[in-house]
Amino acid sequence: MGGRGSGNHWRYGTRSTTDEIRSIDVRRWAREGMLRPGYWGGWRWLRDGQQVASIRMRAEADRVILTYRHRTGEGEWKDEEYPIFLDHTPCRLGGSRPWFLCPARGCGRRVAILYGGTIFACRRCHHLAYDSSREDAGGRATRRADHIRMKLGWQPGILNGDGPKPKWMRWRTFDRLVERHDRYVHRSWVGMAVKLRMTGLLQQLGGDIERKKR
Ligand SMILES: [Zn+2]
Questions:
Q1: What's the CA-to-centroid distance between 120 and ligand 1, angstroms?
Q2: 196/209 Cα distance (integer angstroms)
Q3: 88 DSSP β-pair partners
Q4: In angstroms, what is the span from residue 138 Cα to ligand 1's centroid?
Q5: Distance of CA 168 to CAs 68, 174, 187, Å?
Q6: CB atoms within 10 A of CB 89
Q7: What is the pTM of this model?
């Protein structure tokens, strides 16, 4: 076990990271003695016994400093180093339990688990980044497709499939609208597929990260 200042011990995440998302659990780190001020070491994620990712960390009085490199896709490697502040709440039976405070700007939520991407952030921040980027990429196409569906008298939502030609509409108009509709649907799917890869998910949050003074 790593005692005060006796670091450089590598610890291992137990979950396999089939989804490419690395997470860190403050309870696990507390159990491993990793939150004691002065501790330093590393954390590795393994899949089939092979290391797929790693970070270094050191603990200070009220925070842990993460140090790691990351890249998006085949892009350049970038070094990251930033603190994640800790909080403690009393337990009902005495003692206290630790929490991470999400380091994404404007968040600071008290959470047990942070999820890696470009930076480590809480689940909610991941979802926010996911939702807003999906709106950028595929959202406009989806809305345009819905607008055409309205004209056609079809149920809104591209997942609801195509409807019939309205009785009053000319075939030529109908064909033209359907063709445009299908083009927007395709764009919308491409946008969603890109976002679903989750890679670089938190890039925008990474730029916003709050680098508090030591
Ligand atoms: Zn957050």
A1: 9
A2: 23
A3: 98
A4: 24
A5: 63, 10, 29
A6: 9
A7: 0.55
Q: Which two tokens stand for residue 189?
A: 């799917």
Two tokens, residue 103 = 């380091």
H-run or E-run covering 206: helix 203-207
The pLDDT value given to residue 179:
93
- Longest CA span, the chain: 80
pLDDT confidence of residue 11: 60
- Phi (first) and psi of residue 209, to 5 degrees: -60, 140
HEC-encoded secondary structure of 7-76 = CCEEEECCCCCCCCCCEEEHHHHHHCCCCCCCCEEEEEEEECCEEEEEEEEEEECCEEEEEEEECCCCCC
Ligand 1: centre distance to CA 206 (Å) = 12
Tell how far the Cα of 103 is from the centroid of ligand 1, in angstroms: 7
| Cβ neighbours of residue 49 closer than 8 Å, sequence gap 6 or more | none
pLDDT value of residue 51: 76
Q: Could you please report the per-residue DSSP string of 66-134?
A: EEEEE-STTS--EEEEEEEEEEEEE-TTSSEEEEEEP-STTT--EESEEE-SSS-B-HHHHHHHHHHHH
The alpha carbon of 101 and the centre of ligand 1 are apart by a number of angstroms equal to 8
Can you tell me the distance from the alpha carbon of 200 to that of 23, in angstroms, rounded to the nearest whole number?
15
Query: What is the mean pLDDT, run by run of 10 residues, along the chain of 214 residues?
Result: 42 45 87 94 81 88 91 78 94 91 89 86 74 61 86 84 89 94 83 55 37 34
